[in-house]
User: Fold this.
Amino acid sequence: MATTAPASELRGFAGHDVPSTEVIRSCVHCGLCLPSCPTYVITRRERSSPRGRIWLMKEVSEGRLDLLDPLFEEEMYLCLNCRACEAVCPSGVKYGEILEASRAQIEQARKSTPKARVLRKVVFGGVFTDMRRFRALSTGLRLYQRSPLPRIAKRSGVLKLLGLDQAHELMPRVSDRFVVPKGETIPAQGQWRGRVGLFTGCIMSTAYAEIHEATIRVLTRNGFEVTLIDGQGCCGALHVHQGDPDGGRALARKNIDAFDSPYLDAIIVNAAGCGAAMKEYGHLLKDDPEYAERAARFAERVQDVTEFLAAKGLSAEPGPLPMTVTYQEPCHLAHAQRIAKQPRQLLKAIPELKVVEMPESSLCCGSAGIYNLLQPDMSSKLLARKLDNALSTGAEAIVSANPGCMLQLTSGLRARGDNRPVLHLVEVLDRAYAAAEARA
Assistant:
């Protein structure tokens, strides 16, 4: 297992973003996390479990395993960072923190290929850091998708030749219109109950703009005015998960500055991955003297839309929606944010809507940010398992609350020739309110 280099030459954790020794040692290796870990469930390998990976981290930390040992790298990136282990850990091990720090250490130490450096600089350093560039790229992608080019590219075999066939299938269909925040406020309907700011993000505002529009309608229908804060951008989750915490910090600071208003009751997020990342800004910026306190305050105001609506209660009665659905739990909602009951409460509030629970509803679908592009084999196995479980319910639609999950599930259904919809939970609520209006 260990590298062949002499012990004195073993590279260990160093510099900044070092995995906490205290967190590593807090794992008692009880094994209660094993049934919840997607990669362990598939492989049945100890090293591919949370406690196995923590043992590897401990070996690097104590100088018995090289930081760039191929096995260590493989396991740090085979992990989906779904955080299911955290949700069941009796010792409260903050696994996500030490996993992301381990990846940051690997990225600092290894020599990237020219292709990887260009990709990181252009995509992570250029596109995701500037929403104008992101929207411009999305506009170009939208034109491409509406043209005959996708069919030509698939039939010609050029996508397979370039190794882009998987990425092409997972590409989200860009919305006809974007949600571009300009500081406007959409007034509440009925009795005013408060003011919230909607986090629009990057992918959600361009590929899932209709979900933002549905979110605004549901919130205003329940008495909340919604402000679209100017100056906000990407949440930084992809940067942090891929070993670039500094890139994530830069984006976090930008969002903290944008939402620095005492007039918002909450910052509403409808993408589970974004919400989980934003709730951890306090940890991400804990060593920043200027932003540490502000980041902690910011994180306290972040709420998933399902969390917010369940806590506040629905002041407007949804109309009947006679259909059968099953709910797929996004990892970063159920595990990272521990929000599991609230989405189900909201679905049960809709008259005539039948919710059928799928087996293993909280087991990762294999999306995990860009995991499905970097680890296609494991991702495909998890997706197949998820779809088998979802379709066993006989549901007419699959409901989720995260764009990555929705994209993954839609892609998998399409590959099976199944055209049943994958809906965001707020879309379901929005349909129920439209039904109520139609009956009025």
